[in-house]
Amino acid sequence: MQEEAEPVAALPVSGIAPSSVDASGIFDIAVIGGGINGAGVARDAAGRGWSVFLCEAGDFAQATSAASTKLIHGGLRYLEYYEFRLVREALMEREVLWGIAPHIIWPLRFVLPHHSGLRPAWMLRLGLFLYDHLGGRKRLPPTRTVRLHDDPAGRPLDPKFTRGYEYSDCWVEDSRLVVLNARDAVEKGAVVASRTRCVSGAREDGVWRLTLRDERSGETREIRARTLVNAAGPWVAQVLQSVLRANTPATVRAVQGSHIVVPRLYPEEHCYIFQNTDGRIFFVIPYERDFTLIGTTDRDYKGDPAKVHASEDEIAYLCESASAYFRTPIRPEQVVWTYSGVRPLYDDGASKAQAATRDYVLELNAPDGQPALLSVFGGKITTYRRLAEAALARLAPHLPQARGRTAGWTGKEALPGGEFGIDGFDSELRALTADFPFLDAATIERLFRAYGAGAREILGGARKEEDLGRDFGAGLTEAELRYLVDREFAMTAEDVVWRRSKLGLRLDAGQIAEIDSYLRTLVPVAEVAS
Known about the structure:
Number of strands: 18
Distance between the termini: 28 Å
Helix content: 25-40%
Radius of gyration: 23 Å
Largest sheet: 10 strands, mixed
Structural class: alpha+beta
Shape: globular
Strand content: 15-25%
């Protein structure tokens, strides 16, 4: 007789009490990987009534999902590669995602200057016409032609650019989108465990048996599951080959994308999409009130995804490319922060990294009726919800009948904090401002943009700033840190200042160290492993 797995409730779950599985002790679905795809699958599956376990070796959204350009967009340039299905699906998702998370997603207007030496005007107009009409746009305003010499959008640009086109897409706080999906999965019955690595997995007695290691304490546990989803992102091939030892091809093309952040380049709120002479496009976007985000690069990557970083060549490339459009050149010494990620694209044999498909590919492996393994390749943050639906459609024949919501529910029910909806955003913000007059407008807006209705839980019954506890800098208080530990899986200062927020841009090393020290009093290793 095989030894029974230890109770899953003993696993570390980042301060959120786990739900128990059914009497068999077997989960319906186990998910490896806590990026946007893994968290999206877990949320959708839990909402449909399946029992779900999700493990992530680091923090949620620690890798690729935190290194995006932070756009919910159709991908204008993908039209050049005839990716019409992908673009249509992504365009349709813009307003769906905005509707379920209006606190962390909002519209942007992008200006595309016409460059006489690159793509012709007719091609740009055709692409934007398709962009306006392919995805059922309802709320977002349409494209318009811009005379750059007469429009505020032209002020920061080199005067040689006289005409452009303005169109709509949306912004997303990418790391927060992941965390909110994971949190909602827990609220619907899933068990999620960050800092928990799957070290081995095998098919035994008709189920998957997974061995898990708590990366903080070194303690190991086992769980069993009827099906397994490999959503490990840049590590999807490594999980297949080294952890699961599955006899299935790993068709991954690792592509590095890097971004730079500089002090704010212009006061207006519009964004730019620029063409480069090498055929790439890149974005320039107002960022965190006082900064400007520029990116991204596209190049094949061969190293360890955990060690990826923006190279000096990439930084120089982005500065030089942006300088070709602005009146005032941008220099590498202006860069205050960089970030870089590895996109685990499906290897379609494209000759250039920028041409490799951004569409997702799902590979199901279930030989001779054995428990199913579904591996996720590629994908965009914009289409994560549709990817999750497609993944569960593939797994459904290998699962018990769903006992909860039906397919498509994730596009109708708000993520935590966004319950007021798009139309309620302004009135909810006004009410929050009126109820907490001792906080300045910038702090209220930051809290509301991050937590939405959850900002009230942080502020509680506070009547003065001191009621929120110590301020560690930039308005980050003990009350907010406790909320992040209790409700959003945070354990370290890095989790807080670079993923749950971007306050690292405003805090010095000493302040960040103090945050780490305080968090250790809230999340000691012994407590997490208990």
